[in-house]
Amino acid sequence: MHGKFLFVDDDVNLCQTVAMAMSKRGTLTSWCTNAKEALELALAEDFKCVVTDLHMDGMDGLELCRQVVEHRPHVPVIVLTAFGSMETAVAAIRVGAYDFLAKPFDVEALSLAVDRAARHFALKEEVKRLRLVVDGNDGEDPILGRSAAIRKVLDLIARVAETDASVLITGESGTGKELVARSVHNRSARKDGPFVAVNCAAMPEALLESELFGHVKGAFTDAKAARTGLFVAAQGGTLFLDEIAELPLGMQVKLLRALQERSVRPVGASTEVPFDARIITATNRDPEAEVAAGRFREDLYYRINVVRIPVPPLRARDGDILLLAQKALERFSRSNGKHVLGITPAAAERLLTYPWPGNVRELQNSMERAVALTRFDQIVIEDLPDQVREGRGSTGGTVEPRLELLPMHEVERRYILRVLQAVGGNKSQAADVLGLDRKTLYRKLEAYQGARTEGATPGRPALP
After folding, report:
1. Can you tell me the mean pLDDT for 431-454?
2. Are 337 and 301 contained in the same domain?
3. Domains of the chain: total
4. Exposure string (b/e) for 328-342, b if CB count within 10 Å is 16 or more?
């Protein structure tokens, strides 16, 4: 972690050695040989960490630590001592020290301790800031996020909401597709009308037809009274058809006709009933692949896919995880009658490193569990689900980062394949994330596949 830290020790040679060694690790170092001067520097400049010896003439390291903690609470203090007794450690912690390091120490251990302390306090400040962001959210829009990926979604929502065009929302399960649909509705001229949602995968075809189009009395055995369908119930508002790709082909034909004619025929009726509702659909499948496989009608696909809004998976939303976690914490804390204020930095780090295969839904579930189980006013690591604590992804293992020096074409190839994997193989969504035309992406993938089957050629490395 880059930045500047303050090293305090009455040994000039040690100070110079530490400053030189830390600079090679990308960390600038200010140093001084007495605590009084160190306190003046700490109050005047912005350090990521202060490391101080314990025994010095005049003001000692413990008093310096106490003063820094009081006046610069966001700056962690690490106390050095040649006397690694329990009494010394307890005294350092009592005055607010983040950690202590026994002398003699090696520079690698010092560097790790400084980075760990700085990261801890940076996460602590981020959690505080996000708590303020959540408290200041007026609830008008349910979509929270500041990442580039979610800003793109919000921009599409703002632009399409002003129109009456049909919208197709794509994305993995748990990414919040219904929230996107509600946001489009709430920003549109139809916001005062009803928002009617139905999951197309939740009922059989016969019931779904009656649910969508309605039925007349006596249309079937249990039709003891006429019923208005959801198309008409959404009059003046929005009808959201979730999991549209799950519709049987026979039902797809009837849906296409209703969309083309802007009218529906209730089951058992002989006349059409007009409707005025905006249609928003969603699917967690790749719609182009479904069309190619013959499972989804191409004409219906073009009818619903006027504007496409791809919703990114949570793992692609850098910077949004803690914000969403804090929002969920506030909500579940209120509903459970508990006084949980935030998330400890250690728990926040676990949330940031977990891949979230279940996306926002899994994150909310994890926070609900944590709020229910915690015995403190902050979520700690032990409150998190096992897989989050242990950092297990969908494969059940963890991946250690490895530094490799690669040519640019290989970096591009690996990144494209990584994005494709992250979006579950959905090529259209991958193209949106990468900022590529779909034809360009297909051409590159064909080239990679050719390299694997034919052997690598210059500029086109073989797939592993």
Report:
1. 73
2. no
3. 4
4. bbbebbeeeeeebeb
